[in-house]
Amino acid sequence: MTDELCFLTIAQSAELIRARKLSPVELAQAQLKRIAQLDPQLNAYVTVTADLAPTDMRGRYQAAFGLINNFFYGFGPVIGGYLFDVGHGPLIWLGSLILGLAVAFGFRAFGPRLFLR
To answer: Phi and psi dihedrals of 9, rounded to 5?
Structure first.
């Protein structure tokens, strides 16, 4: 059945999940298994992050990501709108430039260590 799961359409997968005949985890694991089988020949993926987080910590990582992500989705437009209203629009661009450069340099410095896992 694992190979069959890889060829289901989105609608078919959704129907099986809704009917509780298929677990989303089972579907994802089938897709990851197929990626592991075919990617050495196809070289279609740059990075597969399936095992980046330890199994027992995945929920915590997802909760932290969700909290931070939702915080900035909620308050980012408010803070940005306020800065534009008071005439500090260029601060947004300057802050974005500084943050982008910090991320780029951080990735350049620590990125190779991430791929050694």
So the answer is: -80, 170
Please give the average per-residue pLDDT across 72-92, as a whole number.
86
User: Higher confidence at residue 73 or residue 63?
Assistant: 73
Alpha-carbon distance of 70 to 68, in angstroms, equals 6
pLDDT at 83: 83
Tell me the C-alpha distance between 97 and 82, whole Å. Answer: 19
8, burial (CB in 10 Å: exposed 0-12, middle 13-18, buried 19+): middle
Residue by residue, DSSP assigns 11-28 as HHHHHHHHTTSS-HHHHH
Helix (H, G, I), strand (E, B) or coil at 6: coil
C-alpha to C-alpha distance for 31 and 7, rounded to whole angstroms: 9
Among 11, 14, 13, 6, CA closest to 36: 6
Contact between residue 27 and residue 49 where contact means Cβ atoms under 8 Å apart: no
What does the DSSP 8-state code read for residue 53? Answer: S
pLDDT at 113 over 80: no
